[in-house]
Amino acid sequence: MSAHSPDNFDEMIDAEGGVRAAYKGYRDWYDEQDPQGLKRKHQEAEAFFRKTGITFNVYGQEDAEERLIPFDPVPRIVTAQEWRRLSRGIEQRVRALNAFLHDLYHRQEIIKAGRVPEWLLRGNPAYLPHMSGFTPPGNVYTHITGIDLVRTGPNDFHVLEDNARTPSGVSYMLENRETMMAMFPELFTRVKVAPVSNYPRRLARSLAACAPPACEGRPVVAVLTPGIYNSAYYEHAFLADQMGAELVEASDLRVMGGRVQMRTTRGFTPVDVLYRRVDDDFLDPLTFRADSMLGVPGIMDVYRAGGITIANAPGTGIADDKALYSFMPEIVEFYTGEKPLLPNVETYRCMEEDALKYVLDNIADLVVKEVHGSGGYGMLIGPTSSRREIASFTEKLKANPHNYIAQPTLSLSTVPILTKKGLAPRHVDLRPFVLMSPNGIEITPGGLTRVALKRGSLVVNSSQGGGTKDSWVLEE
């Protein structure tokens, strides 16, 4: 076991070298295991992932290819008490985000009250004027949300970013658990872990509860994928299969008789709820990009007329905006009347003169991100960047400050991974998945833990060399 680092909160080992309560049952089991047997199991898991086709595509590189997401067989463990506290904060935030989106596309009270500036909307490509004055079925915008969390201390969780457009990764959460249960069934009899396998069933039920006014009888749910070349296609197919829903592409759908209808072996059938994994721009070539081959011509007219539910609602992407993220404390307070239970990471908006000056003066110590960036791309981690990279980013910042925010480099917590020499600490984040319907909010216990497999690295994204591990919430 690597030595405990005083700079980072170690989720398994305390400052005196003892094992924390969350990991006690696991560590007792681990100490009884044969190290060679664990390594063999790890190799079996990788073979299973390869055979199942659990891959992702890497874009923007000359060697763009399908890769296996590395899986680490040591779980990330949270106690029931910690999870209860986290859940309250997650639910508060998702409620506030949904209320904010409704307000944004209606009366814009938060802007009139001066709590969020109007310039955040002006020219923001994620803001869709087509949604103005329209309320989605059940008043739900954020049907599925992923809230990225980082931990810096025993009780210190921060929200790193919100994923309200089309959060991905839930298939890895489910496959990681299934793999762990297949590899170590005896471990699950000794340590009681909250289940996650019912997520697809809960997702199907949650989506069906958001059926549109035109729905008659049992809602028909379909998953809209851009197709097999999309980096998350595996997940689209997996979720459709697990939910018992149809997996469709644009060519399978057409607007007929005021409904979006799906081609089947018995002719066309109306779709009530479309879980789309296609970005807004490509959703309807008659409304957005005319060159889109991934969307359905006329779907927005059907949507606004109450003929279909689109999940997540078009226009939710503005909630992923990293400049908007910096106003989340005000947003939470405005719509809930409460202080945020989960704090943001301190954020500098580079379009503000004082903030820009501070960021340029301290860029070597900060993390700088594109406002619309994702997947670990378009960002600078000052402490681990070369002088040339810092100089290049400095020029980008000066040329287009509106495009960037900056944050301090956090001391992310570490959890153990399995290495050739045994357990060693690595940095992690956590993406819990949240379902919202008119019946309420459901949070899956745990979520997707992403881990930076390189020693000292803070970048957990799979596209940047990170891996995943099973996330356990202990039962009472």
UniProtKB/TrEMBL annotation:
It comes from the Bacteria. SUPFAM superfamilies: Glutathione synthetase ATP-binding domain-like. Pfam families: CP_ATPgrasp_2. Coiled coil: none annotated. Residues 75-452 form the Circularly permuted ATP-grasp type domain. InterPro entries: ATP-dep_Glu-Cys_Ligase-2, CP_ATPgrasp_2, UCP005522. This is Circularly permuted ATP-grasp type 2 domain-containing protein.
